[in-house]
Amino acid sequence: MSQAPLLEVRDLHTYLFPRRGVIRAVDGVSFTLHRGETLGLVGESGCGKTMTALSLLRLVPQPVARIVKGEIWLEGEDLLQKSEREMRRIRGRKIAMILQDPQTSLNPVLTVGTQLIEALALQGREASSRLVARAVELLQRVRVADAARRLRHYPHQLSGGMKQRVVGAIAMAGNPQVLIADEPTTALDVTIQLQYLNLLKELQAQTAMALLFITHDFGVVAHTCDRVAVMYAGRIVESGPVRAVFNRPAHPYTQALIAAVPSLDEPVERLDTIEGQPPAPEAFPAGCRFHPRCPYAEPRCHQDYPPTLPVADGHTAACWRLAAP
Amino acid sequence: MLKTPPQRVEPPLARQEPGPRGRRSLPWTSLFIIAAMVFVALFAPLLTPHSPIDQSLPNKLRPPFWQEGGTLTYPLGTDTFGRDIFTRLCYGARVSLLVAACALLVGGGVGLVIGILAGYLGGRVDSLLMRLVDAALAFPTILFALLLAVTMGQGLRTLVIAVSLILWARFARVIRGEVLALKTRDFIALATVHGCSHLRIMAVHILPNVLNTFVILLTLHVGVVILAEASLSFLGAGIPPPMPSWGLMVAEGRGKIASAWWISLLPGIAITLVVLAFNLFGDWLRDRLDPKLRQL
Fold this sequence. Notes:
CATH architecture of chain A: 3-Layer(aba) Sandwich
Number of strands of chain A: 12
Strand content of chain A: 15-25%
Low-confidence stretches of chain A: none
Distance between the termini of chain B: 53 Å
Distance between the termini of chain A: 33 Å
Helix content of chain A: 25-40%
Number of strands of chain B: 0
Structural class of chain B: mainly alpha
Oligomer: heterodimer
CATH class of chain A: Alpha Beta
Number of domains of chain A: 1
Helix content of chain B: 55-70%
Order of helices and strands of chain B: HHHHHHHHHHHH
CATH topology of chain A: Rossmann fold
Mean pLDDT of chain A: 86
CATH superfamily of chain A: P-loop containing nucleotide triphosphate hydrolases
Largest sheet of chain A: 8 strands, mixed
Number of helices of chain B: 12
Order of helices and strands of chain A: EEEHEEHEHHHHHEHEHEEHHHEE
Number of helices of chain A: 12
Shape of chain B: elongated
Largest sheet of chain B: none
């Protein structure tokens, strides 16, 4: 992919400022996203995945959180320089989002139709007489059967998978170029998960939008993503094409994560885990943040954060073991 | 000798588990009283040949018809000015309902808006508005109403303002709590993600979700309002005589309570019944519409 990236995040820092101290939720994250590409952002709970996504939309929870540094370039414009008013026009039209829990993602007192039409009207691209037809069209695109009738239904009349489809339809209302999916299948039945992932891929193929897929599930990443970025303690520790990262993980954290996925082929006596706990975000260890849990930790890992070094073409990792000794 | 084992009889399942509270059947008694009051208020001029205001001194202090000296012309007796108690009760219902409707609209509406603003915007706006609510709730309302009556003069307008001042703070506090809980729900976050403005989120997403609570609050407060109206009229800060109001009627009869009990007692009973009916109905509606119960 030689063309300029659709979205480029450079050195993003989003910090939380509670009563005392500072939580470095996102601490120097950089990545790019091309048109039609799917990037998986993987990591444990609390590693800063969601905060990264919210930063892209400039919707970090105020006033506790603040984007302190960085650049977010979308189609040649830095989103961090935009006014709140301009951002509102970008949200929904350029960047949309799907959240984890379909049960709470829809307004319980409004019908599906009302909510879809609301989203469409907000984009202001349709004549009001066409809104209902467009809403039906959107529902059909996310493969909701009997779409016209479903418009009159309330969220509680739909199943979880159906609700998440409607959430997807609402997100598609503005024809976004970037769709952020924050663990969209975590709350769904396993049988529905695959269907939903396929649906997202299908929508992506139709519109050439870029997908930023936030998950902790390597299986989902393998199925959906082109590239993957592994986050640990507010930083991206490894990124590269999915195959490369899976076959030759370079960072000890990625290696441990992949080893922790139980294999279906061999009987498993005991599930592999990573020793220790992720570091408390208000007190990251000096040096490499993974070193307290890392089996290969060397003296220099205790002192300096490793630079991001190339592993192979397009595959990088932040680990001292890649540097020349 | 063969002993048959003692048979264990399972109590029928329906007996063991009381039905959910939300399924209670309609409170017919309350509804009947409320309907009767509304009917009487609407059709007052058709129900009685007398005027609620015109005095007829020869007929003063007549007891109700079942007492010695009572006639069916004045079924519930007459007061010190010879005005028919039944007629005045009917017209009094008008005043009570009118005040209740206006005050609930004004006070409840203001409370709704302030509650949504405080809950949704949070931060300093919330602190400021909630301190105002605290202040309003700490203020002696009756005193304030008397002050208003002195400065603005008696009348419907003063009464509505005075009663609204009690109401808005209560509404605001409850609604704010609801909004705080709603604000953390994902669909509000998603609305922002899709480019909704704050005003629009409040109007389209928050408001319909608190209407439920708002309606329950309204019904629960009808009783409060009617009682407040009666209290204020009783104290002379409400509806000016000779307009009939239940509270005023109680006040007018209190000097004659030993000899002509019906002047005070009958409107008193009317107040009690109506307030009780509205409260029971409000309770029922709350049980019925409580979102926590509805999810069962």
